[in-house]
């Protein structure tokens, strides 16, 4: 694919549409030497972007660039650097040169803010690579894997994007979940150790829990919203073709797991096993088993589903708190019982 030099200069002058910007980004990812030809090194060093992208523009542009990036692997560090610069400095150019009037106070405020940039690590070495994240969590990134995250994370969550395989040891932070996106699977934790295997050419995405608790949720249609809660020793597999989640003990052969029936509850006397059960139905069962009162709005919780294994010996408050936290719900307790709400 060849890109006209005039289109690249149009991009640097902030005159491209989001689609044109994504096209240029994809081209420069493959041909970083073009960037050097247009912008000498001293110009890169002298450039100081003065504004952030508006949220809508940023998401529009990043979505296009991410789609392009998924189709091509970085060939060397220069290509990766080009993409990072495009996401940071290039995005600022695109916004700075857009013909949109802004109040002087707003512009001054934006200039005081440094543009947010993604950190990208692509590991091609033979040995596992250890990465310490901004929150002191640790990642053991396996060969042939790529990990990306927003520098410093955000005030409300710690989001990362993984292609390949890695083991995570997460530092617990109340109110700021740790989320790993791998294909159509989002794994949410508060503080635990787990491993994800999500290579692009594999038929499944696997999440193995080593300690703590974790919630795994599908994110792509038509299976979006299906959730699985794992306990230590369990692994779940998302079949990309069938678009289904299966839970099993990771000591079992891979051929053993089969797609479970949805809406199923099993009681073996000591444990309750739920498979894609609506959360209101789960809470009704908790009431009967633990002899407690749980109030909630069925309408509020109708789109939440639960898949997991609960020991009857576990305290109901701990179970409810875990489910609530991982789903951004709230739970309170008073003399009348427990209350679950959004």
TrEMBL record:
Gene3D superfamilies: 2.60.120.1440, 3.55.50.30. The keyword Aminoacyl-tRNA synthetase does not apply. The keyword Membrane applies. Residues 272-332 form the Protein FecR C-terminal domain. Coiled coil: none annotated. Keywords: Membrane, Transmembrane, Transmembrane helix. GO terms for molecular function: sigma factor antagonist activity. InterPro entries: FecR, FecR_C, Ferrdict_sens_TM. Residues 125-214 form the FecR protein domain. Signal peptide: none annotated. It comes from the Bacteria. The chain crosses the membrane at residues 76-94. This is FecR family protein. It comes from Chitinophaga japonensis.
């Amino acid at each position: 694919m060849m890109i006209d030099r005039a289109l690249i200069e149009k991009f640097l002058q902030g005159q491209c549409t989001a689609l044109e910007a994504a096209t240029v980004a994809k081209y420069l990812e493959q041909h970083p030497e073009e960037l050097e030809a247009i912008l000498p090194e001293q110009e890169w060093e002298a450039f100081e972007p003065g504004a952030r992208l508006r949220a809508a523009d940023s998401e529009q542009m990043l979505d296009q660039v991410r789609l392009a990036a998924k189709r091509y692997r970085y060939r060397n560090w220069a290509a990766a650097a080009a993409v990072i610069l495009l996401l940071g400095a290039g995005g600022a150019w695109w916004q700075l040169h857009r013909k949109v009037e802004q109040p002087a106070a707003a512009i001054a405020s934006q200039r005081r803010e440094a543009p947010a940039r993604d950190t990208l690590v692509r590991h091609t070495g033979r040995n596992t690579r250890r990465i310490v994240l901004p929150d002191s969590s640790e990642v053991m990134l396996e060969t042939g894997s790529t990990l990306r995250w927003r520098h410093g994370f955000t005030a409300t969550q710690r989001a990362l994007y993984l292609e390949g395989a890695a083991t995570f040891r997460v530092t617990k932070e109340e109110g700021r979940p740790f989320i790993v996106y791998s294909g159509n699977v989002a794994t949410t934790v508060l503080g635990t150790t787990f491993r994800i295997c999500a290579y692009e050419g594999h038929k499944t995405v696997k999440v193995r829990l080593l300690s703590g608790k974790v919630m795994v949720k599908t994110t792509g249609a038509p299976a979006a919203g299906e959730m699985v809660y794992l306990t230590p020793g369990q692994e779940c597999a998302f079949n990309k073709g069938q678009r289904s989640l299966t839970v099993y003990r990771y000591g079992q052969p891979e051929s053993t797991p089969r797609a479970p029936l949805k809406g199923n509850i099993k009681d073996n006397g000591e444990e309750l096993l739920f498979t894609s059960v609506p959360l209101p139905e789960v809470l009704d069962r908790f009431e009967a088993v633990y002899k407690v009162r749980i109030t909630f709005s069925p309408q509020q919780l109708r789109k939440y589903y639960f898949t997991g294994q609960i020991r009857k010996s576990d305290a109901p408050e701990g179970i409810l708190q875990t489910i609530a936290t991982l789903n951004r719900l709230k739970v309170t307790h008073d003399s009348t019982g427990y209350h679950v709400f959004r």
